[in-house]
Amino acid sequence: MDSGGKALAGTLMALGAGVCWGTSGMFIRVLNAWGVTSFQAAMFRGGMGFLIMLLIMLISRKESLKVGKFRDLALLFFVGVAGLSTANLAYCLSVKVNPLAVAVVLMYAAPIFSTIGAAIFFKERITLRKVIALACAFSGCVVMSGLLGGSSFRITAIGLIAGILSALGYAIYIVGSRAAVQRNSTAVTTLYMTMFYALGTIPFALSDGPLPGKLAGVLPIFFLVLFGLVCTAVPYTLYAKALQRIEVGKASVLAFSEPATATIIGILIYREAFTVSTGLALGLILISIIIMNKGGES
Fold first, then answer.
1. How many beta carbons lie within 10 A of that of residue 67, not counting itself?
2. pLDDT in tens, 169-206
3. Measured distance CA(76)–CA(82) in Å, rounded
4. Smallest Cα–Cα separation from 110: which of 98, 127, 125, 94?
């Protein structure tokens, strides 16, 4: 595959990962209605995704489950726990103690951190195109959150720390994934990251008390499997493959398809209002994606 084809494939993979992540709100709403807490949902998201990928790899037997070196395993542990576990758990806490709009905006500062991290660790250039695209995407997220609506809000020190940790955790996942896929296959990288991610959420999930009895049926189990497949196994694999083909900065902007997808789902499925602000937000995110894909390498 030539460089143009690789870049296009990477772009589509990153966009697809964001779309999959954007569906997580639907699953979490159903789980919350069944009595599952946010921390427990995070555990199921990671755990089911890991089990699905493990089963696929065991059945296919296309490659070894072994990690190349101990330092590679240490990196995957760090990315899984400090990255994915921290991002998901801190976001759960941020949503609890902050207004939802604030939690969302703080979370989506992550692409800014990951772009800076890529410049430090991988010598990726921070070009004017990246800055403009990031500014458009982040502005779209701010508009989408409703923070510009004039409503007052308060944020505590704990809320600010939780929000920043969620963004930093997400950035660690993006930058760490780029380093990991340079040393191991995307399948092995994703498998171990999600395993450590799930393990990191277990103590917090257990602290929320016993699991609801409603999860014992066939339908809930199928639903949890679908949750792990759509929101973990597929998107994390796609994003890992994307990071082998395009720069971190570009992949970070393309992942803004997640809040865009969540907004569209809210409108189409939950009959949420489509306002001028919503249209402007989606437009800004679309512009950022177009900017990142216009011309040659970003």
1. 20
2. 999 999 999 999 998 889 999 999 999 999 999 999 99
3. 10
4. 94
